Amino acid sequence: MRLSRGNTPRASWRRLILACAALAISAVPVVVTQADPAATADTAWSALPATGASTLRNPLERRGQEVFGQRCAACHGPIPTEIYGPTFLPPMPGTQALAARYRGELPAALEERTDLAAVYIQTVVRNGYVSMPFFRPTELSDEDLDALVAYLTRER
Amino acid sequence: MALPPGVGQADFDAALTAFADIVGSDWVFSDEASVATYRDAYSPSRGEGDEKVASAAVSPTTVEQIQQILAVANRYSIPLYTISTGRNLAYGGSAPVYSGSVVLDLKRMNRILEVNEDMAFAVVEPGVSYFDLYRHIRERGMKLWIDCPDPGWGSLIGNALDRGAGRTPMPYRDHFGAHCGMEVVLANGDLVRTGLGAIPNSGANWQAFPYGAGPLADGLFAQSNLGIVTKMGFWLLPEPDATMTGTIRAQRHDDIIPLVRTITHLQYQGIVNCLYSFNSPVFEGAINERMAALLDRPNGGSAAEWDAYASSLGRNFWQTTLRFYGPLNVMQAQWAYVKERLAAIDGIEFADGDVMEFPLTDDQISRLGDPASFGVPSLSVFSSQAGSGGHIDASPMVPHSGEAVLKAHKVYMREYVAADMPPSLGFAMSYHQRAFIMFHGIVLTLDPAENAKARAFYKRLVEVSGENGWGIYRAHAAYMDEVMATYSFNDGALGRLNNTLKDALDPNGILSAGRYGIWPKHLRGSRA
What we know:
The complex is a heterodimer. Chain A is mainly alpha-helical. Chain A has a domain at 59-79 and 90-156: Cytochrome Bc1 Complex, Chain D, domain 2, CATH 1.10.760. Chain A has five helices and no strands. By secondary structure, chain B is an alpha+beta fold. Chain B has four domains: 9-105, Uridine Diphospho-n-acetylenolpyruvylglucosamine Reductase, domain 2, CATH 3.30.43; 112-238, 2-Layer Sandwich (Uridine Diphospho-n-acetylenolpyruvylglucosamine Reductase, domain 3), CATH 3.30.465; 242-477, FAD-linked oxidases, C-terminal domain (Vanillyl-alcohol Oxidase, Chain A, domain 3); 487-527, Vanillyl-alcohol Oxidase, Chain A, domain 4. Chain B contains 15 helices and 20 strands. Chain B has a five-stranded antiparallel β-sheet with strand order 5-6-10-8-9. Chain B has a four-stranded mixed β-sheet with strand order 1-2-4-3. A three-stranded antiparallel β-sheet of chain B has the order 14-12-15, with helices on one face. Classes of the chains: A mainly alpha, B alpha+beta. Chains A and B meet through helix 1 and helix 3 of A and helix 1, strand 1, helix 2, helix 3 and helix 4 of B.
């Protein structure tokens, strides 16, 4: 489920622009048909099975852990120690790329990192980095990004 | 804040306000940072003046909201550009073809409306990704497979509408070919269902028979800009018992001719139905001086000359791996028959592969090295672009003939030599029923000079493909005009038909201007 959107400075600015542009619109004839009733809005990108119950107490960090599982783990999860079946391309390209970059000086799997800064995570998610594409707010909301930051920067 | 071309500030502001009234102000994006997330992450013009960019974005969740957005766009002549999940990377991503368009982002229309295990189909909205549908099916223990392209975060609908393909058996890996039934919002807001969906209360029959009666409308909405697809049905593969592979090695250059003829005929008979590709241990890797010298000859090097070159490397010329899906005894019979049919090729070698049984356990799934071949989505394909700026894909379709693929390969290899580009082509892959894809993944960098070279080379590949009748099956958003220009029979009659349809269905030209070379009348100008 999507968390409600916070009143971030960016969101406020956008509302201000929209509020200033207050021209009324008259209706244009349109054929309108009732769509199907809404079902669950749950979305996930990770093909991995859901993990067990979280041990995290902070709800924001727990949500961040879910967000990582859904939006990050398919690239930045742990590299399997033994591949099952034939190999087309190595799995976990994000973890592979960071392993190549840090050469053991830092953990390649993001969940093992303790040095990540909030602004760095926010910047990479919204701007991308080298071959990592960026993420739109419709894919990963500002609130979920806050939760992700809380999870990856939590005290350990 | 950027404005769409030809739209005044007051009208644009009014349109954005109206969009916010429809979807809520949180789902209209006009601030610079948010709009920047609608760029093409792998733009061939990354950071340069001609990079395609949006002016704003609006993200509805329902058909009614789309209809209301269209009314506003028609009123203010706002160019919209529709995306599903916006992950069509290597083909333009979430960026509009017509720079300055407002992106209509359907990611939030993410409902899986039905998965029918008995009749083996699913009906989804545009924001549903392959990961979403996979997880839905897995969590419910349904014995169904999806077919996914290499990156699993894309939209089933978006990929099918761009006529993408995956890796499981036919017909499922041809995503447009395996769809059945569409719901479409037209530019005037009218809501259409195709096939049996046009019959009220057709129920699951909508996904049973694609044609209905009368003209088949579905094709109008793929690789086009004539409507907004809001639902699609897809046929799914009931989970097979097992899979096994067999590898074939042939020794000589000309062996590709009987190899292609025999294997494609077995494919047409239904004995081979996997995705396979013919690879060459001789052609792989960089083009060295000896290869360049052979390619430079008028015939691109004779069979004897290439065979001598292969012998000097100690390599066999061709290799392909076939995968079978089904009960063990059936797969073994299929493989035995393939070997029997190919046995006449002198020196041919066969190697039996491993058997894998289904269903897979959670642990096995988490360790798969080739997940897409088993209907499991992943993002492993991005391992192929580590450290790069992504790639752009120019993939021509080449006929199922050994002579044709040999000729195409030599023609393209000469182009790589002439342009001094590292070869990045796959030999011949059986994504589709009756033609091979010869995949060219042109690597992008973070260096504008290198990318300029990549862009010129993409255009050259399009040109050469057109000259030889090898149509590009799917265009990058930045080069759709160039690709469509090769489809020029009878002085561009196909383009004229597309324009006629565009003018009839979208007279104000608000939908995805420029997609697949189809421009609204007011932007056609010198492009016509």
